[in-house]
Amino acid sequence: MSTNISKQKRDDLLHKIQEIRTYISTAEQDDNTACLLSYLSDLAKDVNGKKYGLVFEEHREEIDEVLATHTPVLTEDRDLFIENGGQMNCLIEGDNLASLKLLEKTHKGKIDLIYIDPPYNRGGNDFRYDDNYVEKQDSFRHSKWLSFIKPRIEYAYKLLKNDGVIFISIDDFEIGALRLVCDEVFGESSFVCNIVWQKRYSRENREAIGDAHEYVLVYSKDKVGFKEKRHLVPMSEEQAKIYKNPNNDPKGRWRAVPMTAQGYRPNQMYPIVDPKGGVHYPPEGRCWSTLETEYKKLLAQGRIYFGKNNDSQPNTIRYLSEVEGVVPWTWWNNEDVGHTDEAKKELYAILGKTNSFETPKPVRLIKRILEIASEKDALILDFFAGSGTTGQAVMKMNAEDGGNRRFILCTNNENNICREVTYERIRRVIKKEGYGASLKYYKVDYIPIDERMYYEYADELLLHIRELVELENGINFNGNDEIAIILTDEELAAFTENIGAKCRKLYMGHDILPDEEQQAIIAEHGIEINIIPDYYYRDLQES
Predict the structure, then answer these.
(1) pLDDT at 41
(2) Is residue 472 part of a domain?
(3) Does one domain contain both 128 and 227?
């Protein structure tokens, strides 16, 4: 019988705490003894705290302090607007924690697919925490990374649809910690798989054993739902090698598939006679995979194969041309989805430089994720957008299958990455490939709220509402017939006098009061009314 040593130690500590509490309780009571008893209760609570899971030294970032006293808003850089038809996509420049806080206001429970490639915390120049790179010798290295990543994963969970899915690139340095974070936020039952991606095509000789892979962790709120909607992936030539054409079948390459199924079904246990007169029955514990009527149809069509000598157990013939794809598995080789060198060459071909971003991902890797986990109208979020590979992959996928997927990219502008790499890559790809895609460029700003009442800064929030309306609805507001923003009584009067037939949603300033006639006109057209800025900043109004 095993002994729980940790429990014994906890029980011993709790016993000692109780003895101290009993002793203090018998002493003369004053403010000091009351404080000591309170401290003991806190100690007991800590001893009885979490016994398994994610435990680390929590740190606060500079952005945590900013968000404690300010609320984030968006400002559009209209000079960077790309209008090229198609779906409206968004690029947000700023700390991604602030961006996620804003996206919670506009996209809570609305994102179909999230892909992120966060810092790997290798202990060099890949993870910056409060303006300083975290080195290997930093004793709080992993705690800082966990303090950084956990709130962002929590926002990701809030943003995903109930059947949404997240794919997270990571390597050996933080794979264990990331699993614990995701298990805690999503729940262990939401773990889908851990994909191993072969990132190199040549040997790495600098280490004792060459580093050739990274991981892509996959979680879904609804694992069963994701399995049902998950798509097959194209078959590789390596997988297709089993399809041959030894008899020069005019329908092309084929393979023989055993015509049996597990279990016993009385109406699928019929005898089958091969061309040489041999009689065959299903093996023990199995039955034929089709009814006899269906078998006879396949036989008449020449779709039954009895082996090279026409005397073997029956097989059905499956043609390569009929295979829609294969179930994705957890080993992704670089021949199918690309490698790091390919990613750098892609970026260089577009921008003529790669030194500003050292670790891009290949378009084929992200495209494989889109093939598996996105419908044609999916909304995709990448809040560690980096070089913009996700945006390019979404546009490429749309061009290939006629999809209308949209993307939202978030990244900081360290070393001008957002403006000079992420944005510039998207702009050049749209121009070069002629993709029907448009892009809004937003920057995160902040409005101070500390020691101010909501009504004191509500009008400041209104100055940034148009951007949130555009972000939420995936539109360019100018010239849009379906959505209106009303901030003055004069605008309301003009709107009710000339309501367009297409208008479906109205965002109206909090100090605007429609009269009965105006209310009736709006109701007659079935227009949804949202009071701003309360609609987006209700949490501030209630605090």
Answers:
(1) 86
(2) yes
(3) yes
343-376 b/e with 16+ CB inside 10 Å = b?
bbebbeebbeebeebebbbbbbbbbbbbbbbbee
499 and 394 in a common domain: no
pLDDT value for 134:
80
Coil, strand or helix: which one is 208? Answer: coil
Beta strands 254-258 and 213-220 are: unpaired
Question: Cα separation of 400 and 383, whole Å?
Answer: 25
Of residues 372, 371, 370, the one with CA closest to residue 381: 370
> What's the CA gap between 94 and 103, in Å, rounded?
13
Inter-residue contact 366 to 98 (CB < 8 Å): no
How far is Cα 134 from Cα 114, in angstroms, rounded to an integer? 26
Do 218 and 353 share a structural domain? yes
**Both tokens assigned to 352:** 């003529």
**pTM attached to this predicted model:** 0.85
Distance between CA atoms of residues 89 and 383, nearest Å: 14
Domain residue limits at 268: 237-320
Q: What is the three-class DSSP state of 187?
A: coil
Note whether residue 65 is domain-resident.
Answer: no
Considering the domain boundaries, does residue 62 fall inside one? no
One domain, residues 93 and 145:
yes
**Is 55 a member of any domain?**
no
The token pair at 261 is 């199924």
CA nearest to 530, candidates 78, 11, 105:
105
What is the per-residue pLDDT for 128? 77
338, 434: one domain: yes
Last residue of a domain, one of 446, 471, 496: 446
Q: Coil, strand, or helix at residue 447?
A: strand
Is the domain of 363 the same as that of 304? Answer: no
Q: How many domains, the chain? A: 4
| 3-state SS record for 263-330 | CCCHHHCCCEECCCCCEECCCCCEEECCCHHHHHHHHHCCCEECCCCCCCCCEEEEEHHHCCCECCCC
305 has pLDDT over 80: yes
Secondary structure class of 479 (helix, strand, coil): coil
